Amino acid sequence: MAILIDGKKTSQEIQSEIAGRVSEIKAEGGKVPHLAAILVGNDGASQTYVNAKVKACEQVGFESTLVRLEDTVSEEELLKVVEDINENPEIDGLIVQLPLPNHISVEKVTDKIKPEKDVDGFTPSNVGRMALNWPAYVAATPYGIIELLKRYNIETSGKHCVVIGRSHIVGSPMSILMARNGYPGNSTVTLTHSRTVNLSEITQTADILIVAIGKPEFVTANMVKPGAVVIDVGIHRIADTSKKSGFRLIGDVKFGEVAEKASAITPVPGGVGPMTIASLLYNTLLAAEKKVYG
Ligand code: GUN
Fold first, then answer.
1. Do 140-273 and 29-114 fall under one CATH topology?
2. Which residues participate in catalysis according to the annotation?
3. Atom 11 of ligand 1 has which residue's CA nearest to it?
4. Domain regions of the chain by residue span
5. Does the N terminus or the C terminus of the chain have fewer Cβ atoms within 10 A?
6. Is the C-beta atom of 109 inside 6 A of ligand 1?
7. Is the whole-model pTM more than 0.70?
8. What is the pLDDT of residues 42-82, one digit of tens each?
9. Right CATH number for 140-273 from 3.40.50.720, 3.40.1160.10, 3.40.50.10710, 3.40.50.1980?
10. Is 259 in a helix, a strand, or coil?
11. How far, in Å, CA of 133 to CA of 131, rounded?
């Protein structure tokens, strides 16, 4: 049975480290980190995520501002809100929760965010800096995975790391981070996607398998090399009448059978998910302390 890589516990450790730093900042009379989040519309999942981010800010002693806009807001109006926050010296970090309504260009909005405040790490400036291995705000999910590998002392140098999924938010940055010269990193990386031929043959050679495909229980035990480290980024709700809520959460990996074969694995829930908020808080602390752009 695999070691459980506990994202819930690790994220709590990171949050208490951040809270400790906030206490020091307050004692020194420094600036308390302040995160602003823009939420457009009433998408249920987005509201849940944003509420969790605001609550996490409170827990570590950050200030936060939530700007809620109707889903009928024009692109121009949204860009103006971003600009105002860019220019507001009280606010250190800004996130615009995605997805946005179809009439708004994600590219235009992302490009409007001042890179110095882009704590989601989505702007071209931060993606480029990350790829160059310069100081950067690294997107929350890949950064959370890197932190888990580090805190569980997972050996990555010379290992074959297979990433499933090439999204801008997870798969693509993950492949860059795992290949970079450093720890965690120095892996030989294969980035697989919807056009990959013989996926299962490739995943069977993975020492580290990072799954961000967005398909429930897609990875089965026959696709996994014995002793592999398996990181599951997926999160799906499925109906379960035995639960009070009426549903349970599952990942992109068939947990039970893969856990039998892997040497370490992240559960869903309680794996990668909780780490994303810890990463966002960490980036906001970096922003307040001007550690990335100086
Ligand atoms: N939607 C899904 N994931 C994210 C994220 O990490 N940041 C933002 N802003 N929106 C998201």
1. yes
2. 53, 97, 120
3. 98
4. 29-114, 140-273
5. C
6. no
7. yes
8. 999 999 999 999 999 999 999 999 999 999 999 999 999 99
9. 3.40.50.720
10. helix
11. 5
